[in-house]
Amino acid sequence: MDGVQSVTAIHYVQVFSKIFNHEALETYLPKIQLVIQDTLRMWSSSPEPINVYCEAQKLTFRMAIRVLLGFRLSDEELNLLFRVFQQFVENVFSLPVDIPFSGYRRGIRARETLLRGLEKAIQEKLQNTQGKDYMDALDVLIESGKEHGNELTMQELMDGTLELIFAAHATTASASTSLIMQLLKHPAVLEKLREELRSNGILHNGCVCEGALRVDTVTTLPYLDCVIKELLRLYSPVSGGYRTVLQTFELDGCQIPKGWSVLYSIRDTHDTSPVFKDADVFDPDRFGQDRTEDKDGRFHYLPFGGGVRNCLGKQLAKLFLKTLAIELASMSRFELATRTFPKVTPVPVVHPADELKVRFYGLDSNQNEIVTETEAMLGATV
Ligand code: HEM
């Protein structure tokens, strides 16, 4: 993408390290927590079961738009932009054949509509700088351009913005869905997680007045860390990546020539690495202090890729997933709304092949189910 190239010119990695450094994450966290809490309240108040993958995509899109990019869009504008974004993503991998009604044509049209929507949001943001209490990722991108005497054009800002949403959205939605599915499948894991949160005084009743989470608190909970690590091992959203061979080398007696494209597989690595016992079992304790199965070697565990082009948003992604797990454990009871769990399919990211339908119920501070007003009234009448 053009935006990526120009950002590369102004030290792509440096910009990203500013966007996701500890200080930045600390300012995003209360906002991420609010977006998640709002979403869980919405899910809990729905009379119908929630289609988790679809709603998780909306949640991560909302997080990217509201927190990362700092756009102040109404719910209606946000939903509209989300629908266009989905159309764009659905058609991104279609064959480049430009004929009417083709996926390619739909994808191009969706991209244009999306860029117009982003342009409007960026313009409003540039004009309306008041009442802002933190630097979001887009602010950092704009400032870095200025610092390097290379003010980004609107086109570059739009491309950079789209790249950020694209990288953050599908991967994090995939992992969020897998998290909910695994917590449903393994109630003992959820209970152990609740216990850890309770003993650290973090299990709450979803009230905003409870006080915002801090990065250090979230990142130093050992069992929560094991759960998210294991989730990303067994259900790595991204299956692998491509690299160009810069120097001819030999692997298991085969010569791989310079200039070739090679694919490294994250999923196969996690499935076949000898360091993981019973690799197909969801077992967070494998990363616990007693076992630390990932301690030997650098390349057995790589949900965020490896080498210089590894994921630049990994700290944010982990923080988001940990916050989601904390809020799920604190705020809701949830149960599968179908007889069986859907199968999981790995492309383009890991996700349920059929809908994962789940009912959510709010919990109060004693972990009792919250009865909605309508239900309470009905109960009173009966
Ligand atoms: C659970 C969530 C996520 C997973 C599993 C994930 C995984 C990955 C992987 C495997 C790569 C490397 C692909 C390759 O080898 O070519 C990558 C690249 C990247 N990711 Fe993520 N990612 C996640 C979330 C995010 C988020 C939230 C952001 C930013 C907001 C982000 C930004 C990026 C960027 C910018 C790159 C490209 C890095 C480069 O080319 O130098 N990712 N991600």
Describe, in plain words, how this protein is organized in 3D:
- The chain has 382 residues and is mainly α.
- The protein contains 14 helices and nine strands.
- It has helices spanning 2-9, 12-19, 22-45, 52-68, 75-92, 103-127, 137-147, 154-185, 187-199, 215-219, 222-234, 266-272, 314-331, 373-381; strands spanning 50-51, 240-244, 249-251, 254-256, 261-265, 332-336, 344-345, 351-352, 357-362.
- Strands 1-9-6 form a three-stranded antiparallel sheet.
- The model is unreliable at 1-7 and 372-382 (pLDDT under 50).
- Bound molecules: protoporphyrin IX containing FE.
- Protoporphyrin IX containing FE (HEM) is lined by residues 164, 167-168, 171-172, 175, 237-238, 241, 303-305, 309-313, 316-317.
Briefly characterize the structure:
The chain has 382 residues and is mostly helical. It contains 14 helices and 9 strands.
- Indicate the CATH class of the domain at 2-72 and 128-235 and 310-379: Mainly Alpha
Proportion of beta-strand residues: 5-15%
- Average pLDDT works out at 85
User: So what's the overall shape?
Assistant: globular
Rg, Å, rounded: 22 Å
Largest sheet: 3 strands, antiparallel
| Secondary-structure content class | mainly alpha
Architecture of the domain at 2-72 and 128-235 and 310-379, according to CATH?
Orthogonal Bundle
Associated small molecules: protoporphyrin IX containing FE
CATH-defined topology of the domain at 2-72 and 128-235 and 310-379: Cytochrome p450
Total beta-strand segments: 9
Strand order, largest beta sheet: 1-9-6
Q: Determine the fraction of residues in helical runs and give it as a percent range.
A: 40-55%
Which residues sit in consecutive blocks of at least 5 with pLDDT less than 50?
1-7, 372-382
